[in-house]
Input
Amino acid sequence: MSTLKLEALRIIHNSAVDYKGNLVNRNVMFITVNFSKPEIFETSFLPRNFLHLTGVRTKLNSTTFYSLALRDRLSEKDIDFTDDGTTAKKLDVLRSLMNIHKTARMVGDYDHSQRLLVTDKLAGTITSAMGFRKDGDYYMPNTALKTDVRIISKKPVQRIAATFLKSIQDDKYNELTYLAKGFKIEDDFFAGILKDMVSL
Output
């Protein structure tokens, strides 16, 4: 097995384990500051979304790919890299993005500046981002990017004030995973959202 593919399979397996532990079958709600007012960005993470984040090409369907990755059963023949080098860049940041509910600091609307990138919204930091596409009531993850959110987002990029997590079957968010400095949950800024959407 090639060293590159061996390393890729290791990253994919470890990331799949993290994805299951942190994100799969969960909703993440980012509350951002938009001209001093709160704005909500709700996401949903399903098993089938994981493949798109890895950047690899495969003949396996997305659910089977995730299942095999989780059990460390993918082989070299199951994956290929893209010709443009994007697979390596995605794999470089994939593991860190499995903690996006704790690490993301900014949200932006994609500015469509990248010719081959199709996504709607971005969440992340100055070093990595996850892209999301709207699907029904939620935004679903569809790409991982080794980039600064601010570079490929429309201005202004919004600061994340708080991030909440819940299981997809729960009605309300029940776990606070990030709170920005300068904010308190008791602040009036969160009042309406907490009343309607959060149960801590």
Notes: The chain has one domain: 3-178. The chain has six helices and eight strands.
